[in-house]
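Why run this: before we spend reagent on co-expression, it is cheaper to look at a predicted model of the complex and decide which construct boundaries make sense. The entries below are exactly what would go into the expression plan.
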Amino acid sequence: MAVSVAERVLTGQHFMNGDTACAEGALAAGCSFFAGYPITPSTEIAERLARRLPEVGGCYVQMEDELGSMAAVLGASWAGAKAMSATSGPGFTLMMENIGLGVMTETPCVVVDVQRGGPSTGLPTLVSQADVMQAKWGSHGDFEPIAYSPSSPQEMFDLTIKAFNAAERYRTPVFVMGDEVVGHMTERVTIPPPGEIETVDRKRPSAPPNDGWLPYAAGKDLVPAMPRAGEGYNIHVTGLTHDERGYPTNDPQVHDRLVRRLSRKVQANAQQICEFEKLHTDDAETVVIAYGATARAARQAVLAARERGIRAGLFRLITLWPFPRGAIKELTNTARRFVVAEMNLGQVAREVERYTRRPISWVTHAGGAMFAPEPILRAIMEARP
Amino acid sequence: MSGAQVRIPLDSSVVRVPVGQVYVLPERCKGCRFCIEFCPEQVLAESAGMNAKGYHYPVVAEGKEDACVNCRFCKLVCPEFAIYTEEL
Amino acid sequence: MTREIVVSAHPLDGLLRADRLPHIWCPGCGLGSTMACLANAMAESAIPTDQHVVVSGIGCSGRVAGYLKVDSFHTTHGRAIPFATGLKLANPELEVTVFSGDGDLFAIGGNHFIHAARRNIDLNVICVNNFNYGMTGGQAGPTTPMGARSTTTPLGNAEPAFNLPHLAASLGAVFVARWTSLHVRQLEKAMRRAMEKDGFTFIEVLSPCPVGFGKSNDIGEGLDEMWMYRKNCDIDPGIDLSRAGIDMKHDSTIALGNFVDIERPAFRPAGGGR
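The model came back. Tokens follow.
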């Protein structure tokens, strides 16, 4: 699609592919820096931003690898930019090192993972949802990620904006866990006028630089204010564990306090961050849990089940992390059984198991093709006693 | 005429060799001896006493009280920011 | 003049996080001297200190970021250069200095060095070369001379070492210099020159590392290595860089100087950007 518009927000109706919509969502959120490396099926995000970012006064740079890309994203964020990268499984793996640095230094940024078949080089051009647990555990150490799961090009647009907002609000890297189907499909995308798009900016220090200021001291919201490099705050930012001055420390108690605060700043806000969609779950005996591209097939399966008189419902995860355990537990009260459908070997199913004693049918495959509704419908029907 | 007289610069009454004052922060010193051994005028010597960490720090050597020319080499080469000079 | 005057503050303390002194480096290590030169160079440069930013990697050299009182970033191993690239591209007004070590910049970080030099990103890269991985106890690295002993080369290093100025010059760096932590005046001047220049500049600083390298390689204390620099270094800026390798043997010459000082357009993102 030829674009030569120097506007950030392309208000209007579009017929747009998911990757392109993601790039446009980033621009609408205020993204001004992209550093990345080509990798199928996310390359279109980079290609779109390579053209659009310079048009809106931003910067696109193609780095030599994903390790460098993630480092550059963090550096740009510290210079004040809303920064992002986009990749797929193998690149996501390489980015884990500096995602950890982003978590530890509380650097806002967005990483889009358009998932494809793995492990390793896997199925470069075909879909999977196999990086879900990697988003949670891929970088070493304890931390609470925030990860969104779009099911359509429209959501690639909307959730990328939400990802930037969450990154700024909570000062942490945020993931958009797309997949190859949603990334490469073309569908209607409605882009609202800029005035109707909520954007959030990081909390800034409330006073000019002074010697007593503690850069990593946080108030009740557990999120410290963030200055920019070059403003005179003389902040020291390190991946080593640190105290409230930002100075490295060996003290286990200070370390524990820091790591817990980094986790709690997301956990304590899980209610606000978690998003999901329920379809016919109020009276559902069998609840299907699905996300991303699979949710589209799951919806069809649930509707088909209803037509057969089966009380089925769909619980669609819009955020994968924090995991909506409260909502799942609540469903346990009304649902008799669950069906979890996903294009991996049961990564979310394993998580659901932790929050319910109800039987769970796992409908899984390792990726490569989009789910049709039939296997999910079969599982719904077989799950009945 | 002796060689020393021939070599006196014509403006020597106007141009003076700088004279420096040595300042030391003994508690920072780690006893590396860079300042002592590389001072171009050999102004410094090891202290008799030690700082709290057991290192001998630099002091002005006997007879060298007027020898410092404020070249500031010690200020740059000291790894510990434990010594500097200023022009008197 | 009188005897020495004992004081409790140093003129460079304003640029240091003096509340964290004494720093962690060993007696005889040249990192403190190199940092003193950098602090002086920043203070003397025409650029306001608020605009100076220091980015470091992991290792003893990486700790410099924690002692300098400017916006300073202690990043992951090998990734200081791309992090600095992000900072510089997002805010070209910043004066970005990357200060790191031989292993961080040339082993794990080698690929990033190559590409930043190729692009000619406006960064001042300072590599303190102490010929080993010091922080982790003295393992061999890409600049450890062949035959040298380290904790991972107990039988003598079987690998040839990088010749860093040759490498940097071949990649198109616009300013390439090598000095030592003894040659503080020339080093400080070279740092100021690097800051003035637009483009990718590289300064290799040789430093003693008595604990990690010197004591296992017939050099002894930091002072002994400084005397070795005094004796063996030859200021030879016109040398053919392919012959400027270092073997740290007692009878070998070490070439020092500002070897390269050229002009090449610094990286600007396509379409103008910022």
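The mean pLDDT of chain B is 92. The radius of gyration of chain B is 16 Å. Bring this page to Monday's planning discussion.
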